[in-house]
């Protein structure tokens, strides 16, 4: 929900109204929590149609500290949607679509625009499902720019993830090229003993990053 308003009724878009009535099967008058995706929330009751009636109880959660990010090269089918859904549920703050020398799936400008819109809808739905207050950002970036920012490549034979790790790059099914490994500014990291499918590696990276962040907080 984009705007929580000042206490007036909150208007729902069609997907949100469908989720409350058809998916969750709520009854009119039941209590829900509306969120704006930027930390704000407000308790309200559902009227059974396309509006919520605020109760007056509201708050705001501060922006997450020590944000974590995962970038991945898209793969065939709907697996990018699965990756975005699970990374959102895990609490990853930034999700980036990139490409590499061995990428099989390559999006032109129009396909990228359409896919990013779809992935952002998936993230919004997952945010509501897991009761998260901050939407992750979903964008695209060139691999070279991410390497220049100091992102770590996920690679078999890399070092064990350590405190302070905040961003991981996941390659395509064919792995990284020697040139891409040479361009990395920080050591690659290992996500386990075995070779993982690209979507499995992306989700594993989200688990590793959010766990390290939680441990850092004590």
What layout of secondary structure does this protein have?
Blueprint: E1 10-11, H1 14-23, E2 31-35, E3 40-46, E4 51-60, E5 69-72, H2 79-90, E6 94-97, H3 109-129, E7 137-140, H4 143-148, E8 152-159, E9 167-170, H5 178-183, H6 198-217
Parallel strand pairs: 5-6, 5-9, 6-7, 8-9
Antiparallel strand pairs: 1-4, 2-3, 3-4
Helix pairs in contact: 2-3, 2-6
Describe the structure.
The chain has helices at residues 14-23, 79-90, 109-129, 143-148, 178-183, 198-217, and strands at 10-11, 31-35, 40-46, 51-60, 69-72, 94-97, 137-140, 152-159, 167-170. α3 links the parallel β6 (94-97) and β7. It contains six helices and nine strands. The chain folds into two domains: 10-60, Hypothetical PUA domain-like, domain 1 (Ribosomal Protein L25, Chain P); 69-217, Alpha/beta knot (3-Layer(aba) Sandwich), CATH 3.40.1280.10. The protein has 218 residues and is of the alpha/beta class. It is elongated.
Explain briefly what this protein structure is:
The protein is of the alpha/beta class.
Tally of individual domains: 2
Q: Given the structure, what is the number of helices?
A: 6
Uncertain segments? none
* C-alpha geometry: elongated
CATH topology of the largest domain: Alpha/beta knot
Compute the average pLDDT.
Answer: 89
Structural class: alpha/beta
Helix amount: 25-40%
CATH superfamily of the largest domain: SPOUT methyltransferase, trefoil knot domain
* Order of H and E elements: EHEEEEHEHEHEEHH
Rg from alpha-carbon coordinates: 19 Å
N-to-C span: 32 Å
- Beta-strand level of the residues, as a percent range? 15-25%
Q: What does the main sheet amount to?
A: 5 strands, parallel
User: What order do the strands of the largest sheet run in, or round the barrel if closed?
Assistant: 7-6-5-9-8
């Amino acid at each position: 929900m984009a705007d929580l308003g000042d206490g007036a009724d909150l208007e729902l878009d069609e997907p949100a109204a469908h989720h409350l009535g058809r998916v969750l099967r709520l009854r009119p008058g039941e209590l829900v929590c509306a969120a704006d995706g930027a930390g704000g929330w407000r308790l309200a009751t559902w009227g059974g149609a396309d509006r919520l009636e605020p109760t007056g109880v509201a708050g705001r959660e501060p922006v997450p500290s020590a944000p974590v990010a995962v970038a991945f090269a898209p793969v065939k089918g709907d697996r990018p949607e699965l990756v975005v859904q699970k990374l959102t549920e895990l609490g990853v703050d930034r999700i980036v679509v990139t490409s590499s020398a061995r990428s099989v799936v390559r999006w032109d400008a129009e396909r990228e625009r359409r896919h990013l819109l779809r992935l952002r809808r998936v993230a919004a739905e997952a945010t509501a499902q897991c009761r998260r207050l901050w939407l992750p950002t979903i964008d695209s970036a060139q691999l070279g720019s991410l390497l220049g920012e100091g992102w770590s490549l996920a690679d078999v034979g890399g070092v064990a993830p350590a405190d302070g790790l905040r961003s991981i790059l996941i390659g395509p099914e064919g792995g990284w090229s020697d040139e891409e490994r040479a361009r990395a500014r920080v050591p690659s990291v290992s996500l386990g003993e075995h070779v993982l499918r690209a979507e499995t590696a992306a989700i594993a990276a989200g688990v590793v990053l959010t766990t390290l962040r939680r441990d850092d907080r004590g």
